[in-house]
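Predict both folds.
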Amino acid sequence: MLNLGASVLALVVVACGGGTFTAEPQEAGTLQLPLTSTSPSGTVYRLVGAAFNITGPQAVSVTDTAADTVQVPLQAGSYTIQLASGWTMERADAPGTAVPATLLSPNPLTFTVKKDVPTQVRFMFKLPGDGTADVGIHVDSGGWVAGTIHVEVSDSSGPDVDPYGELVGKDVPFLISFESFTTGRDGFGVTTVHTSPVTVQFGGVPSEQLERVAASLEGSMFSFTLLRSGSGMVDFGGGRIENLGADIRLELYPGSLPFTGLLDAEGYPLFRPFETESPMNLWDASIGFAGTSDVNAAP
């Protein structure tokens, strides 16, 4: 098992019933945005200068983020939340000094508020590692496969309304993040990468269906292959993540753009940052969609 050299911060955004406000009957919950967390080593991280734009049944801009946790009452429904530019990540013991961090998550992210049902959304950041923290923002070592799916066609074999039809013609950002991975050799010049349990996120278009898919795939393993090509090039051989019990599968097919790669002493590709384009299918029992995606990945 390889421990990855960088870290991922997860800014956890929780929408839940209750809160410190008086809600109207149609106001189902409170959006809670914890902005700090402590790692096991005792280092406290804070997202500074953050502003969030929330759209849906209500449109809300959150600019007062001085508190450790910000709370916003929201009506029931589907929303997007966007982290505006201008934020920095800091250690609490070094205020004013930014920690290098890159936002990985789709921005905006989607979430749904339901009465008395907690909902969790996480903004994932890449930054130098410092162990694992527990709440709000937490740190773990990690890599990712991310990109944007251009949904071209949906497929429903039943008589009911196609829940993915509304996505056709739209772009859906996605993120598959993981803490560690192992590699194996499968045939001549083929490297297989198996990740630890993953977190899956979708952004862009509000979709309860995609939120359900992301929740179902949470904790599954993602496997993909890298194939040696000619002249120092490497091909993405496709990959799959699935939940057999829920009959949900997200599949990336072989990429159309070889990329410059590194080989080990025996000629097998090493997992290094890469970009390519890949057809992608989502199968959700008897329904789903297909499209093309740009893909970027890093260990």
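Second protein follows, with its predicted structure tokens after the sequence.
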Amino acid sequence: MSARTAAALASLVWLALAAVPAAAQEQKGQSVGVAPITKDDPSPRDSALRAAVRTAVADAAAAMLPANHAPPAPAPDRPDQEPNAWLAEKLGADPFVYVTRFRIVEDRGRRPAMFSADRSVEFEYVVVAEVNVDLDAVRAKMEKLGLAERSARGPSREVTLVVEGLTSYKPLALVRETLARDRGVRSVRPVEFTPGRAVLAVDSDQDAAGLVAALTRRAPEGLSVVMVDQAPTRATVRIGWQPPAPPPTVPPTAAKPGTD
């Protein structure tokens, strides 16, 4: 084979490879979806699956935020919503456009409501889904929104945080919100819910000890955190929750006679 022929073949191979689109960058993980069971929802199982996909997509988007980005405070009328719910709303109504594959790996079905944000709900439907998030699609949307992390960040590790002692959704929401506000934390994903217990996967620059120390130090009023067990990439904490007392109301001052 002549040098000219070899060069021509090499060029054809390069062009063929260049014509093949690069595979989408994906993030595969498990996500828990919870949907309240109400008479207005004919398929709470589908709603729970949608919630699981929405959470997986929002958590992937949260990992792209700049390190100094401060998430907005929850709306006063929705204090128990997911920490990344604001991101899910910005990404749009259909979370399925950001995933390549998804499936239910565990159908936990109907059970007494514990993690539904709506406290008036008596029962909820819970599923665990395996979701493949298209990170390229998420990043493209985040860049349009001006929210994508553009600077390189240091290496991270996944820490498994087991949270025990849960009596309602509120303390778990506070734990996730407090963790998400740490500059070294890129994402906080719930991977398991059982009565009184939740397991979170935390993508962080810190090890388990540093993560729990930061959580303990920044815990909001009424939330107590006690270390139960610890390893470099796994920790178990017990949570105590005492809602702060509402501020005292000041009765209106009675008008003095003759001042009308």
